[in-house]
Known about the structure:
By secondary structure, chain A is α/β, with parallel strands linked by helices. Chain A has helices at about 45-50, 70-75, 90-100, 105-115, 130-145, 160-175, and strands at about 5-15, 15-30, 30-35, 60, 75-80, 150-155, 180-185, 195. Chain B has one domain (about 1-220).
Amino acid sequence: MIGALELRGLxxxxxxxxxxxxxxxxxxxxxxxxxxxxxxxxxxxxxxxxAGLGAxxxxxxxxxxxxxxxxxxxxxxLLGHQEGLKPARTAREExxxxxxxxxxxxASARSAVETLALGxxxxxxxxxxxxxxxxxxxxxxxxxxxxxxxxxDEPLSPLDAAWRARFGEIMQAHLAGGGLILxxxxxxxxxxAMTLELAP
Amino acid sequence: MxxxxxxxxxxxxxxxxRGGGALVSVGFYAGVATLLPLAIxxxxxxxxxxxxxxAWVALALASxxxxxxxxxxxxxxGALDLLILSPxxxxxxxxxxxxxxWIATGxxxxxxxxxxxxxxxxxxxxxxxxxxxxxVGGLAFAFVGGIGAALSLGARRGGLLTAVIVLPLFTxxxxxxxxxxxxxxxxxxxxxxxxxxxxxxxxxxxxGPLAMAAACRNxxx
Lengths: 200, 221
């Protein structure tokens, strides 16, 4: 369990250009933070820096007492624009693999399939799924293996109104269980959340 | 451990998957082996002299074909990010991916190699050694090739870059394996070449994943 996500004086560059500097955030367990800012403001880079996939120029990312290596290995989920699903494999194969890879059990994967109503899609190849359906498969990964911190990069964009609302409930439940959510968004999150705006 | 065996299964399935990846490599191999007599001329003695060496070089080239896929697809579709966010060390993940590559394409190529060598005119008693060399050499090709594949991540036309990086590194196994086959065919002691080939493969398995993991991290940051 990650107790909190804390950014202290974080500065990140991308391709030689400084995106933001001296960024600080204190996100306690059970809360969500909406990350806003114009295109190219560095939302994705910030999420990747938190996940340890890109180095920060300065500053520190802390996980409330949890060792950063351990937090990144088994304490957080990253949902990016790219969902990491192979077009030629079925949704079932992909979900089973990613759930096992993230440390989930068969039972938790089944309940994730139910929550996201993926049953009828499971035997389709990922290439046959629509963008919204693919996103639901990716979201099922979050539920299939419980991890405290969700780093979401525009999680709602391919979803229709009904699924946006449904995913709002799923996020609420995650927060109620002591989870944390840091989500890069353009539209407001359907849940109460603090806001962190990235401005150049 | 179960995590890594699941990954191995996925890698093999992806390589065998609907594009018929492994069969394409074997088909390419058969094609090169068929072209050689057309270029060299059909005289049996001349062909027999180069048969095992030619089969061996064609094998190195065929191993290159599927390398591009090894990291590039996972890099492009975001899967590499998720593979890193795991308790499994990235070095081990890379090693498992290369092992999958070896099982999916190296092993079928090793099965095809004796057939190609004999078809080119090598003596049938050479077949077991050709198979053993191809199997061990394939392991070296997969792990050394993985370094090239990881280094060329994010480059345009990464497959070609991989080939340029990797071909010089394929030199030692080609020399050792070809030497062992030549010595065996000439009735000379062949074990030293084969043992050197095994040593090269062992070094590639031990050191390759460290380089691959560093290259992957660098490509993602």
